[in-house]
Amino acid sequence: MEVNCDDKGIERIVEIIEKGGIVIFPTDTVYGIGCNPYNESAVKKIYEIKSRTKLKSLPVLAHSLKIVKEIAVVDEFTEKIIEKYWPGPLTLILELTDQKLKESLDLENKIAVRIPDSKCTLKLLEKCRLLVGTSANISGNSSYTNPNDCIKNVKNYDMFLNGGIITSKGESTIIEIENKEIKIIREGVLKIEDINL
After folding, report:
1. Residues 163, 63 contacting (CB under 8 angstroms)
2. N or C, which terminus of the chain has less Cβ within 10 Å?
3. Distance of CA 124 to CAs 79, 132, 162, 193, Å?
4. Cβ neighbours for 196, distance < 8 A, ≥ 6 positions apart
5. Domain that holds residue 188
6. Is 70 helix (H, G, I), strand (E, B) or coil?
7. pTM (predicted TM-score)
């Protein structure tokens, strides 16, 4: 089932997420696959669809900094980085404080989170606050920016939110901040030399 990225389409996608379904949606970087991060069986299904090892935890997308602060620790230095680069292609690894998320996502004490710079994704996140947001592909394969390629190659999801072709230069950069020091976990669109205050 495929819907467009308009109010009606987003409404239907939210219904699917609330029922524990799996959805594919556009972000600012690539097409993502996600679910309600508090739903353990939906999270398990994403691992199966992607053939992803459980050793690789799933990142989440959030609608706002306020919501991020409800689930994780954001210190003053990190908040300055966030204000400069969010919404955008920067994923932060933060100390997780939400016990329910620790259980549903099978995490210890850290979570990867970002706010994407996509009107469509932000409209969706406005309704569901948090969403598992990992690339919609089989682990090890390339990510998709073209909805037709994504539909052709990814199976067993419940609904596809079509936002057209995504014009992006690649995936998000993942960083972790320790004692005001930025550690690059994965270099993506943002280069290490670009990340500063």
Report:
1. no
2. C
3. 23, 12, 12, 32
4. none
5. 2-194
6. helix
7. 0.95
Rg of the chain taking only CA atoms, in angstroms: 16
Select from 155, 4, 176 the least CA-distant residue to 78: 176
Distances in whole angstroms, Cα of residue 4 to Cα of each of 24, 32, 95, 160: 12, 15, 35, 8
Query: Which DSSP string corresponds to 7-37?
Result: HHHHHHHHHHHHTT--EEEE-SSSEEEE--T
Cβ count near 150 (within 10 Å)? 24
Ranges of H-type helices in 3-110: 7-18, 40-50, 65-71, 76-85, 99-104
* Structure confidence at residue 41 (pLDDT): 97
Pairing state of beta strands 110-114 and 90-96? antiparallel
- 88, 28 Cβ separation under 8 angstroms: yes
Kindly give the interhelix angle for 119-128 and 7-18, rounded to the nearest 10 degrees: 40
Phi/psi for 106 (5° steps) reads: 55, 55
How many CA atoms lie within 13 Å of 73's alpha carbon, on the beta-carbon side? 11
Q: What residue ranges of the chain have pLDDT lower than 50?
A: none
Check which CATH number belongs to the domain holding 112 and give it: 3.90.870.10
Of the candidates 55, 92, 87, the one whose C-alpha atom is nearest the C-alpha of residue 72 is 92
Q: How many domains does the chain have?
A: 1
User: Residue 20's pLDDT is what?
Assistant: 98
DSSP state of 194: G
Q: What are 114-137's pLDDT values in tens digits?
A: 999 999 999 999 999 999 999 999
